[in-house]
């Protein structure tokens, strides 16, 4: 498909954003194409590996994932964007849930139903480039094999084949840099949410939330940042990697052993069987056909660097901090508390990095009280 005209996009957005799917128009409205229930009630666009997941909360939330058309440029250009929509519209402003780096809305499998039970209007969104949005058609993917020879000292040469996926019939996938992620979130908010929101960001999602709140303050009433990872200066030297090496690294990022190890770091004292199942939940989106391209695009674009934006945040902010977080130091949460102009902090005992997963009731109570407080 041809590249979009970018006249309506912000100056920071990279060029060559492309259409991922067109919507059929009828009676002046927009029809979502290709959605609907599949086997066992799962949306047909989810990877078939969803069937292997045992966690009932993940399975239930997966059945509720939908794709909504989000305009990204000219009037005919949409990205079919994955999210979980609220069942109710509440008087309080909506709560909008982001997710961690390279994750999906399924991260909120335990907390989402509890937030709804508390009477809140809740959205769980997939950030552009992650999750289950439609960024390309797998039927048009071609494979290029790049052969690299590594010669370690005292060892024979090792020949490695790296498969790089391209979409010649679609042109380039949508850009997944910071500016594109921000603009896509704004367009989704503008089209569907339409009211100032309580924006919740865990880990790197906190950087996404801060960046968005500073650039679109009219869209954000309050912020909730959970074990925030906001002091990394982008992707660092990873942005300078040759594309072939970047694809090799991203292929490693998808592997089950690496994801299992990260899962063991993120949680405290959970059974191995549950950790294996939660690893399958956490890497489900990696089976999307465009995942490698989108992840490499984000990596080489430089990633999030919001250090200079922290003091510009005007919204009232709640920081939720798991006391046993092994990934982001509690000292960094304290630093953020003092640097944000209007912030408070709550600690959650016996909790690791993904506090909203292992202590959902405590986190939901904190979010609910903070949302309703004047």
Summary tags:
disordered N terminus; two-stranded antiparallel ribbon; alpha/beta; Rossmann fold; AB_hydrolase_1; eight-stranded mixed β-sheet; globular; AB_hydrolase_fold; Epox_hydrolase-like; 374 residues
Structure description:
The protein is an alpha/beta fold. The chain has one domain: Rossmann fold (3-Layer(aba) Sandwich), CATH 3.40.50.1820. The protein is 31% helix and 19% strand. A hairpin with a 7-residue loop joins strand 7 (142-150) and strand 8 (158-166). Helix 2 (111-117) packs across helix 11 (360-372), helix 3 (178-193) crosses helix 4 (204-215) and helix 6 crosses helix 7. The longest helix is centred in the middle third of the chain and has 16 residues, at 178-193. The N and C termini lie far apart (48 Å). Pfam families: Abhydrolase_1. Residues 93-360 form the AB hydrolase-1 domain.
């Amino acid at each position: 498909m041809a590249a979009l005209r970018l006249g309506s996009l912000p100056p920071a957005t990279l060029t060559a954003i492309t259409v991922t799917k067109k919507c059929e128009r009828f009676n002046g409205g927009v029809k979502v194409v290709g959605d609907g229930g599949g086997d066992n009630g799962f949306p047909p666009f989810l990877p078939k590996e969803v069937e292997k997941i045992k966690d009932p909360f993940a399975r239930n939330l997966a059945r509720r994932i939908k794709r909504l058309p989000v305009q990204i440029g000219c009037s005919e250009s949409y990205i079919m964007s994955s999210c979980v929509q609220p069942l109710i519209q509440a008087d309080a402003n909506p709560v909008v849930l982001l997710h961690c780096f390279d994750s999906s809305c399924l991260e909120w499998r335990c907390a989402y139903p509890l937030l709804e039970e508390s009477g809140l209007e809740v959205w769980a969104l997939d950030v552009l480039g992650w999750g289950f949005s439609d960024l390309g058609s797998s039927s048009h993917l071609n494979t290029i094999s790049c052969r690299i020879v590594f010669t370690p000292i005292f060892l024979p040469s090792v020949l490695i084949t790296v498969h790089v996926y391209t979409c010649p019939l679609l042109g380039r996938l949508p850009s997944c840099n910071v500016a594109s992620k921000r603009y896509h979130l704004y367009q989704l908010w503008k089209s569907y949410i339409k009211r100032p929101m309580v924006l919740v960001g865990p880990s790197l999602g906190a950087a996404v939330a801060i960046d968005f709140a500073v650039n679109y303050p009219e869209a954000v009433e309050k912020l909730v940042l959970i074990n925030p990872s906001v002091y990394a200066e982008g992707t660092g030297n990873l942005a300078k990697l040759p594309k072939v090496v970047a694809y090799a690294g991203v292929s490693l990022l998808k592997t089950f052993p690496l994801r299992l190890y990260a899962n063991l770091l993120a949680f405290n004292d959970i059974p191995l069987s549950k950790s294996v199942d939660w690893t399958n939940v956490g890497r489900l989106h990696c089976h999307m056909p465009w995942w490698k391209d989108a992840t490499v695009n984000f990596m080489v674009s430089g990633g999030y660097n919001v250090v200079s934006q922290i003091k510009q945040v005007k919204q009232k902010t709640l920081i939720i901090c798991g006391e046993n977080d092994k990934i982001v130091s509690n000292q960094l949460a304290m630093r953020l508390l003092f640097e944000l102009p209007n912030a408070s902090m709550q600690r959650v005992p016996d909790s690791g990095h993904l506090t909203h997963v292992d202590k959902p009731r405590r986190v939901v109570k904190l979010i609910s009280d903070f949302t309703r407080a004047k």
